[in-house]
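I trust your eye. Have a critical look at both lines of this record:
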Amino acid sequence: MKAFVITVLLASPALASECPEAPDHSVRLAELVEEVRDAKNEMYAAPLNTQMWELWTDAPDETAQEILNRGMRKRGSFDLLGACLLCSSDSADDLSRVRPGSCRTLHSINHTSL
């Protein structure tokens, strides 16, 4: 897991100049964090966690969303290398259209899951 995060961290800065602007959900995320802190127990916090994930997995454009969804499916099946390769534009022919924002988004999601 650490190797995956390190790889994504190293790849992200070089690619960041081409990345479309990500949606700004900071206000809503801050509200959700406060609601989670105030939740009585895990049962009350679970739906708030789901809402956070919906915001975290909102990519900046359709192409990035498609790649993010593929990466999340791979991550969900513990194919972390496969998820990381989705962030590399020269890893496969059909990935030449990869948008770096997906990689940063995927990194953010994995970083919060550590």
User: Anything to note?
Assistant: The two ends are 8 Å apart (CA to CA). Helices lie at 2-15, 26-38, 42-56, 62-76, 80-85, 100-113. Residues 42-56 form the longest helix (15 residues).
